Amino acid sequence: MRSSAQLSAVMLAALLHMSGNAVADTKLATIVVQANGQANAASYDGVVEAIRQTVISSQVSGAVVDLAVKTGDTVKEGQLLARIDARSAAQAAVASQAETAAARTALDLASKDYQRQRHLFEKNYISQSAMERAEAQFHATSAQLSAQIAQASIAHIQSDFYVIKAPYAGIVSDVPIALGDMALPGKPLVTLYDPSSLRVTASIPQASIGSYAPNQSFTLEFPNLSNGHQWLARTELQILPTVDAGTHSTQVRIDLPHTLKEVTPGMFARVWLPIPKNVVGMSGQLSIPASAVVRRAEMTGVYVIDANNKPLLRQVRLGKAQRDTIEILSGISAGDRIATDAQAAAKEAR
Q1: 49-60 as b/e, with b when 16 or more CB fall inside 10 Å?
Q2: Which stretch of 53-62, 77-86, 208-217, 232-241 has the lowest confidence by average pLDDT?
Q3: Is the pLDDT of residue 278 over 60?
Q4: Can you tell me the distance from the alpha carbon of 102 to that of 134, in angstroms, rounded to the nearest whole number?
Q5: Among residues 191, 192, 186, which one has the least CA distance to residue 61?
Q6: Averaged confidence pLDDT in the chain
Q7: For residue 327, what are the CA distances in angstroms to 289, 296, 319, 331, 349?
Q8: What is the pLDDT confidence band of residue 18, given thresholds at 50, 70 and 90?
């Protein structure tokens, strides 16, 4: 008969054998990530910009007495945006008009006096100096009237500065003021952009942009848009003639069609440029099933099966989505084994 110590050793060995089989066998469906041949496109991060965007500032001082728009409003050309207290400007315009009327009266009097003095001079009733003084007075009064008319015109033009109108049809993107705030010259009141004139701007390394051929087809990606609106094919690419000395990259601009309604300035975008076949050193494209991707708040990852057959969550960066597969830009490598069912792997990892 075996001793109790021998029985304990046999039972421990049996438990270890059963545990080893449990680790070696898993019910999770897995695949080995493989490179899908040579990569045919490279992605570069970009941002959507408004080609026509205006920060409307005040040209005069005064309290904001009327604020007719808010952020997100669509406005027409010439529509009222804000109004600044113009009571002092109105009084100044009235005073200027009164001074103009007084100058006209003075000119009329000076003109009659000049005509009278000229008749007297022709009959030799007054001296030459008296005639010249009358003529000088007439010209001075005429000049004063011209200056006063110009001053009244300036007062009238300045009164228009207190009414802020939209210079073109667009969308209000920012209103940094509130009713009752003090407007000052140069202080922003409303920011407006034209939604029909948008573009994508991205920085691309010199080595990559040098291999791009003019009028070559490429793709824009908008990851934040709904399905069916994420991809846009384009052929026109503007390459700026300057290079950043620190990053050795060049800015490119791609104009967007005015029919693209879902895109707004500041939105993230990717520019996918084709890679020529003769370019070496590009890694193969990695694609995995869409069901393997885990999305938790701002984190995106997949469950990688480790050496002990346990699923471990690893963060990845996603690329193009095509039907049921998603391209992986970084986070995993060819040869890694991943779980194809993310929900099942999450339960196994607990």
Answers
A1: bbeeebebebeb
A2: 208-217
A3: no
A4: 19
A5: 186
A6: 81
A7: 9, 18, 5, 11, 24
A8: very low
Mean of the pLDDT values across residues 60-81?
A: 93
**What would the pLDDT profile of 22-32 be if each residue is shown by its tens digit?**
334 557 888 88
Name, in order, each residue with C-beta under 8 angstroms of 233's C-beta and a sequence gap of 6 or more: 217, 218, 219, 220
Q: Which residue has the higher pLDDT, 187 or 134?
A: 187
The CATH 1.10.287 portion of the chain extends over 87-160
Please state which CATH class domain 30-51+195-349 belongs to. Answer: mainly beta
Tell me the backbone φ, ψ of residue 127, rounded to 5 degrees.
-80, 170
What's the rounded Cα separation, in Å, for the pair 40 and 272?
9
Domain 56-82+165-193 fold: OB fold (Dihydrolipoamide Acetyltransferase, E2P) (2.40.50)
Q: Comparing 154 with 121, which gets the higher pLDDT?
A: 121
Among candidate residues 136, 140, 144, 192, the one with its CA nearest the CA of residue 164:
192
314 with 304: CB under 8 angstroms?
yes
Give dist(CA 284, CA 275) in Å, integer: 12
Q: Where in the chain is the domain with CATH 2.40.50.100?
A: 56-82+165-193
The CATH fold of domain 87-160: Helix Hairpins (1.10.287)
* pTM listed for this prediction: 0.57
In this structure, the dihedral spanned by the alpha carbons of residues 86, 87, 90 and 92, taken in order and rounded to 10 degrees, is -110
pLDDT at 2: 42
Q: Give, in order, the Cα–Cα distances in Å from 174 to each of 50, 73, 82, 260.
A: 14, 10, 13, 21
In the chain, residues under CATH classification 2.40.30.170 are 30-51+195-349
Over the range 155-175, which residues count as b (16 or more CB within 10 Å of their CB) and which as e? beeeeebbebbbeeebbbbeb
